[in-house]
Amino acid sequence: MKASLTLQFSTDPKKSQENIIYYSCSKSKVGAFLNYSLNVNYKSKGKNLSQRYDNVLQFWNSQKGNNESKVVDLFPESSGIIYEKSRNATINKTQGSVTESIVFSTNQDYNSSGLPDGIIKYKISVDKQEKIKRSAVVLDLVNLKQKLVTSNLDKLGSATVTATAISDPSYGNFHAKDFLNTKTSEMNTALEESNYYASDDQISIDLSSGTTTRVIQYIIA
């Protein structure tokens, strides 16, 4: 009886590695700023569907913090001047793969230094609008009571404070909403008024972009 042993070698990384990562990046100008669009594909092997899924999630979570360095590898001039603008990931459980698309911007509005984990961008804007009638009945959201508000001026003022947050989708759909709900005092302070009443408070979520917006309307006496 004759036995034989055959050994095969390959330089194909798909055959020689348990975990594989591919990425590409493109640069474009958007207004006064540059955008760097990074696409990353993670793939893992496993004995069965469940193991492939677990392996690729573990691999992805161990590597996704290095996205900025991947951009810098391809565009060295971006080092130290880019900030994450948006992120989207698609998980293919059957294939054991994750495809992630991340956009970085040179716009410093996206600088998330000091922000909690999972919050990519946070910004507050104030718009003091046309004045309204001298007297008005408003529902004060602080104590949920109606008040007749008057002013020594000819008219009462009104204003809108808008807070916008963009979150990492991996933290859940309501991560930015929970974050903005803690910012009431900061939004009141941004108004820069001493005598005001909150008349409306609304939160909206755009799941396609990961953007959550909170808008508070004020009456200024």
Please name the defining characteristics of this protein:
4-stranded antiparallel β-sheet
Structure, explained:
With 221 residues, the chain is of the alpha+beta class. It has two domains: 91 residues, no CATH class; 102 residues, no CATH class. The chain contains five helices and ten strands; from the N terminus they run H-E-E-H-H-E-E-E-E-E-E-H-H-E-E. The strands form three sheets. The protein has a four-stranded antiparallel beta sheet with strand order 1-2-4-3. It has a four-stranded antiparallel beta sheet with strand order 5-8-10-9. The radius of gyration is 25 Å and the shape is elongated. The N terminus is likely disordered.
Query: Could you name the ranges where pLDDT drops below 50 across 5 or more consecutive residues?
Result: 1-12
Helix and strand sequence: HEEHHEEEEEEHHEE
The number of distinct structural domains comes to 2
For the secondary structure, the number of strands is: 10
Strand content: over 45%
Category from helices, strands and their pairing: alpha+beta
Strand order of the largest sheet: 1-2-4-3
Largest sheet: 4 strands, antiparallel
Please tell me how large the radius of gyration is: 25 Å
Question: What is the distance, rounded to the nearest whole angstrom, between the alpha carbons of the first and last residues?
Answer: 101 Å
Helix content: 10-25%
Count of alpha/pi helices: 5
Give the overall shape, derived from the CA principal axes: elongated
Whole-number mean pLDDT: 82
